[in-house]
Amino acid sequence: MKSKLTHHLTAGALVLAATNAVYAVDGDYSPTTALRPSAGYLNDYLRQNDPYMAAWDFGVQARVRYEIKDNFAIAGTAGSVDFRDHGANVDNSFLLLRVKPHVGYTGKWFGFYVEGRHSSSDNDDRNPNPESDGPMDLHQAYVTLGNHKEFPLSLKVGRQELSYGDERVIGNFDWNNNGRTFDAAKLRWQNPWFAADLFVSHPVVPDDNNFNTPNDQDWFSGIYATTKKIPKQSTDIYFLARNTGVGAAVLKAPSPTPAPYNPSARDIYTLGFRGKSNPGELGNWDYTYELMGQYGNFKDTRTGAPASRLEHRAYAGIFNVGYTWTQSAMTPRVGLEYCYASGDHNGADGKHGTFENLFPTNHKFYGFMDFVSLQNIHDVRLQTSFKPIARLTLALEGHAFWLASTHDNFYSVAGAPRGGAAITSNVGTGTGYGINPNYGSYVGSELDLIATYALSPQITVQAGYGHFFRGQYIKQSLSGAAFGSVDANWFYLQTNFSF
Q1: Are strands 194-205 and 213-214 parallel, antiparallel or unpaired?
Q2: pLDDT of 422-447, one tens digit each?
Q3: Strand-strand pairing, 488-498 and 266-277
Q4: Integer angstrom CA distances of residue 455 from 21, 135, 395, 403, 462
Q5: Where in the chain are the domains?
Q6: Which residues 6+ apart lie within 8 Å of 224 measured at CB?
Q7: Which residues does residue 203 pair with via DSSP β-bridges, in sequence order?
Q8: Structural class in CATH, domain 2-26+41-498
Q9: What pTM was estimated for this model as a whole?
Q10: Ordered DSSP codes for 55-91
Q11: What is the Cα Rg of the chain in Å?
Q12: CA dihedral defined by 181, 185, 186, 187, rounded to 10 degrees?
């Protein structure tokens, strides 16, 4: 116990020491005023001395994060599943480092951007590790052609991040130490009232200690359009296609490859509609809603599933409303959100009803502890935030989760089903999670507290704590395996630098 505590304290001290080592206050910095955005120390210096350097972008983004996860599944550890009480290792603490150097240029009609990425972890029990990708890989490398001030059409080709809307179905997954990129070609039409992207891509698969390559049997394409023509809101309409061949799950990367990069064969099409209120146009109120429907076919890999593809029909919806006291001290905001994603009701009927979450940034929405994805779930979320001082933001939120269907699995944040594979240890064998229609649907609730402090325009420090209170579904699933269940706890301390 003493050595583990010493390691925790040492790792936390390293994060804070790294912060203090590079901290510097700009001449116009004031603790009583809001911080202005920064492009990083190097860009700020170059552009201050030469306005023509504004076309160039030089810098390094660095992030250090220490995490403590108690009662979380550990990849590669036999019998380790979320919320297990005894019989396997479910406690992990580790230090993550990510460094992303980049150079970019934006001319009148031409631009380029190249970004490397080093991702590593220390004292991490996960094997293979989904957040290690060293020593250096290519995160982004693309060229752009066009100038929307002169002509509405532009082109962007190369390795790039894709991020749309709130990132419910397409996001760069920046919380992860590796993030997410695509080898893509994107054609954009933009004028003052309408914009639309037409893209085709392959997801890039993280492959630790090897050059990352795309999965050429996994095609992700679509059109995403945005308009301001509906009063008081920004409106998005999109159509997305994910088409994967039978060999898409056979990759060069170590097994098991992090989901969703090893998909079964499928042809899934998503039609979505999103509305988000414009800032300030509804007084202190704000809202967001998003509706998604899916059709196509899906090869179900669950135990006992048919060998042929199943007809896919699924849907999801998100509704969020909030109120901000803009004229009050600390600018408090309260928000209420409901999320629903369909599950499968009968695995033997030749149809697949589990919503396909595609390529999201789930960390921001369904609990910061990352137990839940937008699949087979009801999520009621209460959000609060306030600013005690100009540089500090505190956010407190709670979730309550129910399975949409107990005839389907409880899915992980990466979209993988917590299946009924045997759990074995020196105390016995059991099935654990799986499809258990006679169990209760209540998964549990989560409480999160996040504090973000801006040391300067270039440096932020963030700390968070989460506790997951297991519900009847988890208790019943693990009690049957004779291993018992226990609530989960999580803590992290993170520092971001923009050099």
Answers
A1: antiparallel
A2: 555 544 555 688 888 999 999 999 99
A3: unpaired
A4: 12, 29, 18, 41, 11
A5: 2-26+41-498
A6: 164, 165, 170, 196, 197, 199, 236, 238, 240
A7: 182
A8: mainly beta
A9: 0.89
A10: GEEEEEEEEEEEEEEES---TTSTT--TTB-SSS--E
A11: 23
A12: 170
